[in-house]
Amino acid sequence: MYEAVIGLEVHVELLTRTKLFCRCSTRFGAPPNSQVCPVCLGLPGALPVLNGEAVDQALKAAAALNCRINRISTFARKHYFYPDQPKGYQITQTRPLAEGGRVDLGAFQVNIARLHLEEDAGKSIHTPECTLVDYNRSGIPLIEIVTEPCLRTPAQAREFLEHLRLIMEYAGISDCKMEEGSLRCDANISLRGPGGSTAVVEIKNLNSFRAMERALAYEIRRQSRLLAQGKAVAAQTLRWDEAANRTVVMRSKEEAGGYRYLPEPDLPPLILDEAAIARACRLPELPLARKARFIGAYGLSEADALILIGDRMLADWFEAAVAAGARPRPAANWVLGEVARLRKETRHLPFTPADLARLIDMTERGAVSVAGAKKVLAVLAERGGDPEQIVHSLGLAQVSDREQLAEVARQAVAENPDAVRDYRSGKDRALRFLLGKAMKLSRGRANPQLLRELVLQAIADAERL
Amino acid sequence: MEITQEQVKKTAAMAKLRLSDEEIESLHRLLRELVARSAGISLPEEEASTAEPGEAAAAPAPFSRPQPGLRQEEVVALAPAAERGFIRVPRVMDHE
């Protein structure tokens, strides 16, 4: 029986206004090659200057991952030849900014080997005829986070990466948009058994959580099969082919020596003072602390709290609705249900958490039914507005007038004698049918609790007649 | 550190260069000379180990606002070929 040994190398683009070594903008989506200068194009004579904002962000990431921050770190040139690398080398760090961190996920812990600053490469678009290169991304500040090979399953790797994304988002270090490449992951995997370990295989450019999990699961199956056949696993660099659902060989795995690391002569060592390190350690509330607070302060279930913190926008919405007066549990239900669904459909929500709090209050006062409130929310999502006014304009104000609803209940009972007979003979479903008929007669506006009471009363009265 | 002809060939392969035997021989000689001359130079990394804050280190620049660099037309003019604002190069997708 073999055990998987998995380590991740995660690249996170830092949220900075300018690139790592020059003043070019980092804005995503600009026309190709419109945010470049002699420094990030590697033109002769250009000299890099380290961006302090990137250092601060990297230090914050190191603190959030419980790393030991090195007071002195150094830059180096990592040489490789590829069109997306205009200088012929990437500026990275050999003595890293931070080492020895950990992320505690409850069921397991992930140890962080190192965290260092480096510059991103340009973006290549491969067509059947040629490769097109855009250098706007060249020089964007990255941190590379390298874990120890301490993960044992693809599911663990996914859970860690998802949590890492949350930490980066919560700390304001990166927007971690995998679809825009601001969070990228490579995975190293080998199998360990009684006879020793297989060679380490690297899977590059895993651009979604699902792709990472599936690629690792595939590799475990492939390597297990090779071992069962008595064959060796070659040390290779692979990529995941999503369409073919398999890994594909890119090249034989490069050794560190192949990159011919040289100290970067144009950048002196980065020497940090205690004040800079202390500043980095002032972190905002991180995801697990927020989850604990949601459970402790608001009485949410572990499951609801976990889903809420997993989507920062929804978690912020929930807290804002509670701050506007909504009770926490109904607020969580509405945010996780209707608000999450509407956001998926419309992407932009033209109503506020305060609007939601007012709507929840109206349902709790019996001024509108839950079904009616969902219709109001749909209108709010479409065009915004005042919840009370929408309730009135749509005629959704809930009817709680006893006399009015008693008449509706009597009519529903009188018009459906078969259902009344079925209910009396013990069929509970017949009562739901009668309640449905009565609700329809009230045009969906009846207070459901009161209507149920009055329908049961009408059945009893009909029996006495 | 001794530089071998095999190392020259490997480096050339990584740089996607096809070299003749004469070129390998010539580069081998040059690289051996370069390495021999640089052997006595101390590396910044060694210096850094004894450095104090403020010594031998540039303070990171407090960049605030992006500044315009080169215009797209200036960038593509530097390249041998371009297409729709991109630099066009021979297809380099890794082999499978």
Q: Could you describe the 3D structure shown?
A:
The complex is a heterodimer of chains A (465) and B (96). Chain A is an alpha+beta fold and 465 residues long. Chain A has three domains: 3-280, no CATH class; 287-393, no CATH class; 402-464, Arc Repressor Mutant, subunit A (Orthogonal Bundle). Chain A contains 16 helices and 16 strands. Chain A has helices at 38-41, 52-64, 154-170, 209-228, 274-280, 287-298, 302-309, 312-323, 328-346, 353-365, 370-383, 387-393, 402-415, 417-424, 428-441, 448-464; strands at 3-13, 68-69, 72-79, 89-95, 98-104, 109-119, 123-126, 130-134, 141-147, 183-193, 196-197, 201-206, 236-241, 246-252, 262-263, 270-271. In chain A, helix 3 packs antiparallel against helix 4 (209-228) and helix 13 crosses helix 16 (448-464). Chain B is mainly alpha-helical. Chain B has a domain at 5-42. Chain B contains four helices and two strands. In chain B, strand 1 and strand 2 (86-90) form a beta hairpin. Chain B is flat. Chain B starts with a helix and ends in a 6-residue tail after the last strand. Mean pLDDT of chain B is 79; it is low at 46-57. The chains are: A alpha+beta (465), B mainly alpha (96).
Draw up the topology in text.
The complex is a heterodimer of chains A (465) and B (96).
Chain A: E1 3-13, H1 38-41, H2 52-64, E2 68-69, E3 72-79, E4 89-95, E5 98-104, E6 109-119, E7 123-126, E8 130-134, E9 141-147, H3 154-170, E10 183-193, E11 196-197, E12 201-206, H4 209-228, E13 236-241, E14 246-252, E15 262-263, E16 270-271, H5 274-280, H6 287-298, H7 302-309, H8 312-323, H9 328-346, H10 353-365, H11 370-383, H12 387-393, H13 402-415, H14 417-424, H15 428-441, H16 448-464
Parallel strand pairs in A: 12-13
Antiparallel strand pairs in A: 1-9, 1-10, 2-5, 3-4, 3-15, 3-16, 5-6, 6-9, 7-8, 10-11, 10-12, 13-14
Chain B: H1 5-14, H2 21-38, H3 44-48, H4 72-78, E1 82-83, E2 86-90
Antiparallel strand pairs in B: 1-2
